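User: Sequence recovery, please. Input:
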């Protein structure tokens, strides 16, 4: 496995790269920009990344974001994303990467975040000078410099208005795949319009992080794809058009600022001459629509029906392939990124890796190996001790704070270090199983769990995942499934997109490898604990007055 933080050709790849045709897969995620190169036999042979906090400290982000004083507003500087692209391309060039062999590229972005292009920006995008980096030329192109991102939860008022405008939460979910969520882009745009009407009217185009990144490569505005567009509370997920009722409830002239959405596997154009002249890309290099990081991961893991994918990144997400959507008050239905007739379900847990890092720092001397040791030295079921750990207001369910319970369901104020670590990891995975089952998901004998994201490097964490779900856990060769999925999607788009089955185009892709199997006795332990966890979760929710109606 490669060190994910350093750009590296896989062994032997440097010599071969001159003749190696490839597709690039990008991921503009919360904490970093990452890229992989995948060759025509679908092998990953190059990976690179730029980490915002570490490599661009002048933007002063923590975990790639700025949390504002109200603790609800969370933004990221748009120019940091632009500069990260400059930096990563320069790193690739310095390492000898041969851009002329890139047949096509696609990418992913953290979902829901929005970028506001100022009037005149399209002209600047179309006339980029290859002599200068992008960030120097795009400085004045944004009407809002700090983009609202998925961690923002400041738009409750806008959410209630949107639901009321379309006949309630369930009606909105039937239309757009989700009830109103604070981070969903329509509500974020409504807040921008209400609080900053001048910036809104000075905006000629609104992009998602994904379509913004695609626009940088195209040198013109890229359309939003159906799958990432499903995370906005604006797209009619069955008809695949913007819902006029939702647009009207959010902000005026919104349709023209969004442009028309397109199937996720569309070729949206050829790469801008900027990249041909500055980096040596071939003029025919195609850009396939960018999508959300979770939809891209679904493609990267080549999810099959019955499987469940768990992404352990900044956020933890869980997703499934669906034929028939049944939108509900919890979870989300998105258009499927690789088959526009089908859908995917997604559950998002905001307290993912950053929460695990906090408990690691407090209880395992800032060391993942100490953290793992604690998991190995404690028993499945944690002697009945259960914990809920939410540093920031959780999405699934809406709980904040730490809540620890002993085997008698009595709330306690602290646990010893290793009990705390097991309580955190068991609790995170029990919540995932309980809420997936709430969407109708059932673990079956043939169930595979596909794990990805930074924490899927940790075998001891994956062992707890296998034990709690009672199913084997598989990983693909890289934890960057959103990048790999983006490169796969580029090949699919190149092969004909909607006219060709994704699975057909992916026949050569390597199978995932087994990382953990359930330990003997796991199912008895967790069959007893899961209902207790669910009851305690309800108890906390009703004490905080946030139980779902
Ligand atoms: N060995 C490990 N054990 C647990 N978590 C890890 C390990 N290595 C990395 N991580 C976690 O992975 C996270 C980054 O995951 P990643 O999927 O790359 O994030 P994103 O795509 O959201 O930027 C880090 O915040 C870190 O906590
Ligand atoms: O909000 C969601 C999904 O609905 C998040 O999953 C974002 O898409 C951020 O992704 P990561 O940076 O954690 O991969």
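Assistant: Recovered sequence (549 residues):
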């Amino acid at each position: 496995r490669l060190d994910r933080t350093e750009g590296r050709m896989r062994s032997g790849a440097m010599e071969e790269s001159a003749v190696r045709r490839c597709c690039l897969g990008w991921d503009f995620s919360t904490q970093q920009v990452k890229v992989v190169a995948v060759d025509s036999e679908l092998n990953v042979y190059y990976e690179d990344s730029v980490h915002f906090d570490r490599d661009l400290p002048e933007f002063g982000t923590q975990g790639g974001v700025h949390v504002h004083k109200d603790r609800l507003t969370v933004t990221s500087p748009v120019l940091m994303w632009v500069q990260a692209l400059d930096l990563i391309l320069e790193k690739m060039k310095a390492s000898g990467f041969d851009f002329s062999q890139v047949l096509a590229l696609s990418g992913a972005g953290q979902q829901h975040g929005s970028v506001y292009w100022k009037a005149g920006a399209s002209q600047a995008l179309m006339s980029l000078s290859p002599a200068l980096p992008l960030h120097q030329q795009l400085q004045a192109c944004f009407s809002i410099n700090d983009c609202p991102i998925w961690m923002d939860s400041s738009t409750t008022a806008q959410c209630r208005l949107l639901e009321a405008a379309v006949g309630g939460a369930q009606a909105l979910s039937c239309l757009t795949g989700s009830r109103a969520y604070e981070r969903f882009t329509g509500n974020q745009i409504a807040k921008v319009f209400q609080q900053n009407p001048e910036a809104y009217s000075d905006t000629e185009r609104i992009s998602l992080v994904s379509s913004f990144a695609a626009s940088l490569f195209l040198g013109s505005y890229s359309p939003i794809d159906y799958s990432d567009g499903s995370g906005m509370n604006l797209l009619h997920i069955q008809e695949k058009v913007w819902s006029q009722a939702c647009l009207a409830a959010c902000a005026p002239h919104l349709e023209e600022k969004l442009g028309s959405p397109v199937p996720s596997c569309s070729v949206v154009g050829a790469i801008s001459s900027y990249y041909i002249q500055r980096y040596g890309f071939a003029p025919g290099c195609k850009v396939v629509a960018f999508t959300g990081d979770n939809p891209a991961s679904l493609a990267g893991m080549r999810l099959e029906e019955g499987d469940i994918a768990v992404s352990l990144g900044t956020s933890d997400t869980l997703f499934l392939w669906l034929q028939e959507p049944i939108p509900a008050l919890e979870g989300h239905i998105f258009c499927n990124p690789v088959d526009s007739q089908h859908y995917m379900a997604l559950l998002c847990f905001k307290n993912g890796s950053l929460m695990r890092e906090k408990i690691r720092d407090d209880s395992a001397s800032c060391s993942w190996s100490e953290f793992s040791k604690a998991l190995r030295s404690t028993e499945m079921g944690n002697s009945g001790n259960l914990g809920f750990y939410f540093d920031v207001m959780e999405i699934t369910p809406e709980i904040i704070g730490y809540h620890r319970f002993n085997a008698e369901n009595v709330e306690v104020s602290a646990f010893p270090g290793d009990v705390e670590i097991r309580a955190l990891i068991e609790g995170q995975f029990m919540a995932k199983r309980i809420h997936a089952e709430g969407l109708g998901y059932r673990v079956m004998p043939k169930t595979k769990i596909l794990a990805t994201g930074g924490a899927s490097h940790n075998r001891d964490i994956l062992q707890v995942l296998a034990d709690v779900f009672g199913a084997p856990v598989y990983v693909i060769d890289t934890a960057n499934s959103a990048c790999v999925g983006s490169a796969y999607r580029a090949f699919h788009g190149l092969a004909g997109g909607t006219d060709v089955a994704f699975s057909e185009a992916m026949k050569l892709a390597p199978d995932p490898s087994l990382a953990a199997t359930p330990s003997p006795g796991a199912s008895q332990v967790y069959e007893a604990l899961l209902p207790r966890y669910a009851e305690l979760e309800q108890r906390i929710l009703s004490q905080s007055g946030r139980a779902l109606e």
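The pocket of 5-O-phosphono-D-xylulose (ligand 2) is lined by residues 29-30, 110-112, 150, 183, 231, 292-294, 313-315, 317, 346, 348 (CB under 6 Å).
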